[in-house]
Design brief:
Blueprint (H helix, E strand, L loop, with lengths): L3 E5 H8 L10 E7 L16 E8 L14 H5 L8 H14 L5 E6 L4 H5 L1
Parallel strand pairs: 1-4, 2-3, 2-4
């Protein structure tokens, strides 16, 4: 049976340190971030039992709090976008292509655990 783990930014590095969060079983990682890839301090890559990584940058600010006349950077000092249809499509495509029945799944959020649990 497939297992799913949800982690914060603090715990994900400890979990992946030995690349064996599920013993010898393969797994994939959905990495939710706040920043563009070139601005992130840590990036994950498929290696060993980690078979695929989806980097999914988005903020978890409700649309009702976002002023469409200003950038997210101006309003919240975040260089990112809200969760939208494009990100949903990327997530679903990754799930259909990479989350095979024999692969476990880790979801982690760079800022905490709210977005990772939502995924």
């Amino acid at each position: 049976m497939r297992q799913i783990q949800v982690h914060s930014a603090e715990s994900i590095c400890q979990v992946l340190w030995n690349n064996r969060p599920f013993g010898d079983k393969p797994y994939v990682l959905i990495s939710i971030t706040d920043k563009k890839p070139e601005n992130r301090p840590v990036r994950f890559h498929a290696t060993g039992n980690l078979k695929a990584v989806l980097e999914l940058p988005f903020i978890d600010i409700p649309p009702s709090r976002i002023d469409p006349t200003k950038s997210i950077l101006e309003q919240f000092e975040l260089d990112n976008f809200a969760f939208n249809d494009d990100r949903i499509e990327r997530l679903l495509e990754f799930i259909h292509q990479e989350c095979l029945p024999e692969r476990n799944i880790i979801v982690h959020c760079e800022a905490g655990v709210s977005r990772s649990q939502a995924i």
